[in-house]
Amino acid sequence: MRTPKEGWRSVSLSDEDLVRYNRQILFADFGEEGQRRLRQAHVFIAGVGGLGSPVAIYLACAGVGCLTLADCESVELSNLNRQILHWEEDIQKSKVISAARKLREMNSTVEIVSLPVRITDENVQRLVGGVDVVIDCMDNMATRFVLNEACVRGGIPLIHGGVQGLMGEVTTIVPGQTPCFECIFPRGAARQESFPIFGPTAALVASLQSMEAIKLLASMGTLLAGRMLYTNGKEMEFMFVEIEKKRDCQVCGGGDQ
Amino acid sequence: MSVKVDLHSFFYDGIDLANPLEVEGQNVGECLADLVRRYPPLEDKLFAKTGKLHGYVEVFVNAESSYPEELAYPVQDGDVLTVSMFLAGG
User: Fold this and answer.
1) For B11, which of A98, A203, A236, B36 is 20 to 30 Å away at the CA?
2) Which residues, numbered 111 to 170 in chain A, qualify as contacts with chain B under a Cβ-Cβ cut-off of 8 Å?
3) CA-CA distance, A66 to A39, in Å (whole number)?
4) Low-confidence residues of chain A, pLDDT below 50?
5) Which residues of chain B are modeled with pLDDT < 70?
6) B53: nearest CA in chain A?
7) pTM (predicted TM-score)
8) Do A162 and B67 touch (CB under 8 A)?
9) Which of B9, B68, B86 is facing A141, going by the closest CB pair?
10) What angle do CA A216, A134, A127 make, to 5 degrees?
11) Could you tell me the CATH superfamily of domain B2-85?
């Protein structure tokens, strides 16, 4: 993993910041140091849909210094049951533009970068280069493999989330330490059906992803590293599964590392 | 046909599976039916009430996706069935 930025030590918090973020600064393991670390941080949110909307809201409200939003799609009526940054007035508008407008109103001190682009093998290194963490809020497996490879190569932590129906999953991939996405999921998935999804499922998983991001950036707590958390809202069951490196993983080297 | 099964760990939490896990069948559907006969708690985890696989289950035969034939996808003696879980949505 990349060395955490040290510049946070020189980041100053205004009187307004100390009031605005008081309830999280009060948390002993976080404190003003944690807040300065967040202010210094740059987070890349891949996808601003069901997962990306709550993730962006929580990280903007928490005071992360810069959020880059990447999504090539426009808002559709069928998005509105769960993609809470997008409203009726945004239909047919770019998701990243729609999201950025609300996020700036929530917290004008956060820098929002809107990228209405598709993430590809060709542009991914340029997109995620220099960020502190990537949050996987994508709606397809193919782009997740692209993000994973770039994050492993760049030593950038990747917080994966996935949802379907009432089921969700979350894990934090730390290059050099944990299994990567390629270790966990076989390539070649061919199913292409529209999947069912409820808003609270996405909100639950997105909240967990946001919490992982805040902990990772503030260097506190225990991450979901090497573990996948499955949430089953139908039965209200939560299950942890230990995940292992694939011995011959073509991306991270797996067990050979 | 005897087929080896590699099951995603989500599905067998709390179930003491044989190792190696082998089932009998001429196609994916028959193999999974044999698996459920041996381990009935797997039925709800693999199949919806419609009898179809849950949308988040994908079955690979020798690392090739069985989709779209899926349950009708033929298997050969010695094949490896990988039952994976993809929560692809976001």
Assistant:
1) A203
2) 136-141, 161-165, 167-169
3) 8
4) 2-3, 257
5) none
6) A191
7) 0.92
8) no
9) B86
10) 145
11) Beta-grasp domain (3.10.20.30)
